[in-house]
Specification:
- The chain contains five helices and eight strands.
- The protein has about 180 residues and is an alpha+beta fold.
- It has one domain: Beta Barrel (Hypothetical Protein Pfu-838710-001), CATH 2.40.320.10.
- The radius of gyration is 17 Å and the shape is globular.
């Protein structure tokens, strides 16, 4: 699986919320996320452009590996996720620490996630308020094969125009922004 993402810094989510009313909204939710990022004592994940994190929201935890970015104008990465029970998070963290991992930082954000149908594709529109970083909109489409990446980028760019987003996308992660 590949996540194709366009991320935009915005002053406010209000214009996007208004524009979303003209689209076919499939579902929506609001949640607080804590993304704890890890590195290994023998590796440099930043130099390899990979990410390894535990995302926590309520009592749900998702372990995520994100491969290196495969594109220059969008964030396109292989993504592998594994969900686990809330009661196992502390044990899992201790296991990671025991084999040489360490916590780099935690990115905290409030996310409104809206799934929309746009040009026949399911897209997730994420309205993020990231603590210590700013206000952002992420447009994400998941594709199964590399051959679908170009079409997904074009679809996301078209949706950005439809939503009235005028800023240029960034491929810098929230973690990188927080650590700057």
């Amino acid at each position: 699986m590949f996540e194709v993402e366009l991320k935009f810094s915005v002053d406010s989510h209000e214009v996007i919320r208004q524009q979303l009313k003209s689209l076919e909204v499939m579902s929506g939710s609001t949640s607080d996320h804590c993304d704890e990022y890890f590195n290994h004592s023998l590796l440099d994940f930043a130099a390899q452009d990979i990410a390894f994190r535990i995302r926590s929201r309520a009592d749900e935890h998702i372990l995520t590996y994100k491969g290196p970015n495969l594109d220059q104008r969008a964030k396109v990465r292989e993504e592998i996720e594994l969900e686990f029970d809330g009661s196992d998070k502390d044990k899992f963290r201790r296991m990671l620490f025991g084999i040489g991992f360490h916590s780099v930082a935690a990115v905290n954000k409030k996310r409104d996630s809206i799934k929309v149908s746009f040009e026949g594709q399911q897209i997730e529109v994420c309205l993020d308020d990231v603590e210590g970083v700013g206000t952002f909109v992420e447009l994400e489409q998941v594709v199964a094969d590399k051959s679908e990446i170009e079409a997904a980028k074009e679809n996301l760019e078209s949706l950005a125009v439809r939503l009235g987003i005028t800023s240029q996308p960034t491929t810098i992660s929230y973690l990188e922004m927080l650590l700057e």
